[in-house]
Amino acid sequence: MAFDIPGYINTAGRVQVDDLDLDAFAERPLSAEALRCLRYMSDVESHTVCYLRDVLVTPSHRDPDVTAFMSMWAFEEFWHGEAIDSVLRAHGQKADYDHIREVREAQGLKDRLAPIYQSIAANAIGDDFVAVHMTWGAINEWSAHAAYGSLIEKEQHPELTKLLGRIQRQESRHLAFYASQAKERLERSQRARSLARWVTERFWQPVGSTIQPVEETRFVLRHLLGDDAGAAAVRKIDEKVHKLPGMEGLNLVQRGVADFGAGVPVADTGAGRRGSRKRLIAGAAVVAGAAGIAAVRRRSAGSQA
Ligand SMILES: [Fe+2]
Ligand SMILES: [Fe+2]
């Protein structure tokens, strides 16, 4: 069933926090592990506008369905960060715009280059890039939903459950949009299927890992997904990814989690994959180069016809 975009944009909104009993955290604080995970989650949610910057320089910005969704998506994710920050502050932790500024400044040169290489690569690829973007988004939203679910289960704190349950309901709508768009776009283009498989297999990494220190990602993945229940949740995400056209058998999330020492090691499918931002830049350059050459060839073939 197609995603109801008018229905979504008319009902998207700030996650409700006004009725949360933040004093309950003074009586029964969350564990230190949960607070460390929440910090990571808040950093990722607050970084959404930067992810938005990186995709608005790609062909995704030409599709009004995508931009209608993304306008509301960024708004809702912003408030997820704010809501989690209120829980951190209730525990006496610093959670303000100075912290967000520190996270952004820590990204350094790679952050400044990201919109440039992403724009070159994605525009050279053309509309099939949007299928990659939607596939990537679906995997990340499924992952976020599972991470919040795990934290709810581990803490069993009524106020945290209330807040994260509401955030999860919004993540469910995000993942429904991305997954329906990905399915549709992958179904109609063999090139998009090959590209989405190739790009995600090599470059997809667990949510937040590109902006956080390795030890933070490792901690969060081990804490939230490192036990049997976590492994089952990760397998479930991979099963959903495998149902997308052309994405069968990748085990991306299981392998991504295992790369950080959480979960069970999964057999490699043989492709060179994953890596540092340097490899991502190199990969983007390769994709851009190949697509650029193909475009020039098509143009010169057209002019000769
Ligand atoms: Fe979120
Ligand atoms: Fe989301």
Offer a quick outline of the entry:
The chain has 305 residues and is an all-alpha fold.
What does this structure look like?
This protein is mainly α. The protein has one domain (25-304): Ferritin. Helices cover 73% and strands 0% of the residues. It contains 14 helices and no strands. Helix 3 (32-46) packs antiparallel against helix 5 (64-90), helix 5 (64-90) runs antiparallel to helix 9 (158-187) and helix 8 crosses helix 10. The longest helix has 30 residues, at 158-187. The radius of gyration is 20 Å and the shape is globular. Bound molecules: fe (ii) ion (FE2) (2 copies). The site of one fe (ii) ion has 6 residues, from helix 5 and helix 9.
Give the tags.
mainly alpha, single chain, 14 helices, binds fe (ii) ion, Ferritin, 73% helix, globular, 305 residues, disordered C terminus
Present the secondary structure layout.
Elements: H1 5-11, H2 24-27, H3 32-46, H4 48-56, H5 64-90, H6 97-105, H7 108-125, H8 128-155, H9 158-187, H10 190-203, H11 214-225, H12 228-242, H13 252-259, H14 277-304
pLDDT averaged over residues: 90
Largest sheet: none
Shape: globular
Given the helix and strand composition, which structural class is it? Answer: mainly alpha
The small-molecule ligands in this entry are:
fe (ii) ion
The ordered H/E elements are HHHHHHHHHHHHHH
Strand-residue proportion: under 5%
Q: How many strand units? A: 0
Uncertain segments: 269-282, 292-305
Rg is: 20 Å
End-to-end distance: 42 Å
Counted by DSSP, the helix tally is 14
Question: Which architecture name does CATH use?
Answer: Up-down Bundle
What name does CATH use for the topology? Ferritin
